[in-house]
Automatic annotation (TrEMBL):
The gene is Wrnip1. GO terms for biological process: DNA synthesis involved in DNA repair; DNA-templated DNA replication. Keywords: ATP-binding, Nucleotide-binding. GO terms for molecular function: ATP binding; DNA binding; enzyme activator activity; single-stranded DNA helicase activity. This is WRIP1 ATPase. It holds the Pfam family MgsA_C. SUPFAM superfamilies: post-AAA+ oligomerization domain-like.
Length: 170
């Protein structure tokens, strides 16, 4: 019932708050109460990107490995795998930079009126001669061929200069 959601919320918030003891408590309470370890593991995968993100990009690898480990061996053996992951996450630095930026992109898309801007011609795929003749891909600079960073626009003209990583006004 409701306690299922209360406990996962407590686990999530304890990890976010870097409290490894509370994190282990809520994990054990869930697992010892019969919670599906794969449910917990799926939530850890989400937490890795939502709350830790770029502060420790290996957190996602840890979460996926924990999920796979739980899938392979099941309970009760996988409890230590989840415990290791939960403590790793509680101790990890936190960043919601990507989470916020992606939310800003979604807001931009939702707030847009009319048709969405077209993909700039130089970024379009040109697998046929007709598409090449229409200018698809023309002027695209293939970055790996250059020693220095390439000056090139990647957003549609209407969004030029937009930075989704900056805080948006609501």
């Amino acid at each position: 019932g409701e306690e299922h959601y209360n406990c996962i919320s407590a686990l999530h918030k304890s990890m976010r708050g870097s409290d490894e003891n509370a994190s282990l408590y809520w994990l054990a309470r869930m697992l010892e109460g019969g919670e599906d370890p794969l449910y917990v593991a799926r939530r850890l995968v989400r937490f890795a990107s939502e709350d830790i993100g770029l502060a420790d990009p290996l957190a996602l690898t840890q979460a996926v490995a924990a999920y796979q480990g739980c899938h392979f061996i099941g309970m009760p053996e996988c409890e230590v795998i989840l415990a290791q992951c939960v403590v790793y996450f509680a101790r990890a630095p936190k960043s919601i930079e990507v989470y916020r930026a992606y939310s800003n992109v979604k807001e931009c898309l939702r707030m847009h009126t009319g048709p969405l801007p077209p993909v700039p011609l130089h970024l379009r795929n040109a697998p046929t001669r007709l598409m090449k003749n229409l200018g698809y891909g023309k002027g695209y600079k293939y970055n790996p061929m250059y020693k220095e960073p390439v000056e090139q626009d990647y957003l549609p003209e209407e969004l030029k200069g937009t930075d989704f990583f900056k805080e948006r006004e609501t």
